[in-house]
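[Discussion] Sanity-checking designs against the backbone

I'm trying to build intuition for which residues belong where. Below is a structure token string of 355 positions. I'd appreciate it if someone posts a full sequence so I can compare it with mine line by line.
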């Protein structure tokens, strides 16, 4: 899932008739590769677009013909059409995406909202000019297909976390989380994943203590702040702008997976919980820390439904005989400033993957 900026100025796009890209089109050779790679994706087949000019190529899903909801298709009420490719004279790619993700890609210069949007999920993506851009556009097409299938969960569809960060120059304390410092102290340094890294205090501490850090967050505002601080200190970090599930990180890649107070959406098939566990390498450690769970009434009073989010109980329930639970306890918490400083206890789960 790209978080890189597209190089150069935006191309010109028509404002009348079928929305088309007027400048910076893909070369015929690049457009041909885009078409070939798109229809080589698993589970898709080529067809005629139901809403675009006859020269456009629709991307249909083999296993899903009916839309889950109108905003997941470019042709609402007809066969599900999440993507179509315009002709070689145009080379733009039209997709459906979660509104927040489309807004991110627009801000990064990869496309713009479709002029005929009905639901705020329709976007025009500019045709690729280079091999690197081809990879990005194909990844965006993959996101659109996942959104249509219902496989793409967006933790921050309306930029809720971005807006929260923008309200303050600094949201959190700026100090690493105490539980992380205590639990990571005796571990052999290796690759670590910081899930929901925020403004990067844990990232900086880990990198300065010899860890190879991958930091993930749904908020681009938070990542920009974290990256600025890491750059100021000369630290190398891999940044991922995505939710944990959307990031689709390689399984077994991390010696430590740290999730400090994560806001992970719960699903019937426990996608977020499995993503946490799957990221841990054999011999590696999973560290999840939460505040004590509020009552349902307390949660609703703060504007959220407790059942919508993954708690430690859901994670612990999946720890089978391939795991050894090393810590499962509640500890005092002492944080003087920043968001969450009113909490006085931490609930800590630390488990090691055996196989």
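Best answer:
Here's mine. Compare freely.
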């Amino acid at each position: 899932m790209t978080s890189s900026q597209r190089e150069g100025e935006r191309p010109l796009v028509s404002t009348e008739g079928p929305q088309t890209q007027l400048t910076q089109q893909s070369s015929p050779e690049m457009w041909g590769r885009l078409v070939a790679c798109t229809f080589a994706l698993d589970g898709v087949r080529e067809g005629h677009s139901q809403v675009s000019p006859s020269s456009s190529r629709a991307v249909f899903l083999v296993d899903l013909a009916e839309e889950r909801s109108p905003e997941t298709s470019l042709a609402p009420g007809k066969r599900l059409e999440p993507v179509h490719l315009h002709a070689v004279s145009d080379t733009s790619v039209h997709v459906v995406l979660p509104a927040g993700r489309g807004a991110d890609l627009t801000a990064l210069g990869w496309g713009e909202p479709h002029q005929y949007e009905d639901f705020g999920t329709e976007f025009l993506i500019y045709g690729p000019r280079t091999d690197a851009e081809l990879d990005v556009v194909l990844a965006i097409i993959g996101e659109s297909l996942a959104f249509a299938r219902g496989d793409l969960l967006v933790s921050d569809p309306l930029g809720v976390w971005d807006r929260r960060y923008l309200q303050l120059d600094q949201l959190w304390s700026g100090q690493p989380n105490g539980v992380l410092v205590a639990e990571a102290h005796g571990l052999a340094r290796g690759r670590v994943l910081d899930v929901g890294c925020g403004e990067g205090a844990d990232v900086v501490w880990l990198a300065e203590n010899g860890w190879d850090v991958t930091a993930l967050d749904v908020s681009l505002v938070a990542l920009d702040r974290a990256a600025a601080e890491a750059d100021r200190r000369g630290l190398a970090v891999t940044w991922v702008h995505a939710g944990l599930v959307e990031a689709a990180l390689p399984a077994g890649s991390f010696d430590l997976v740290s999730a400090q107070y994560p806001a992970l959406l719960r699903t019937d098939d426990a996608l977020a919980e499995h993503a946490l566990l799957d990221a841990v390498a054999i011999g590696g450690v999973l560290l999840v820390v939460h505040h004590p769970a509020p009552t349902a009434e307390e949660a609703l009073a703060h504007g959220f439904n407790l059942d919508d989010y993954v708690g430690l109980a859901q994670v612990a329930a999946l720890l089978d005989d391939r795991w050894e639970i090393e810590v499962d306890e509640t500890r005092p918490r002492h944080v003087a400033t920043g968001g969450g400083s009113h909490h006085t206890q931490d609930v800590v789960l630390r488990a090691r993957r055996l196989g």
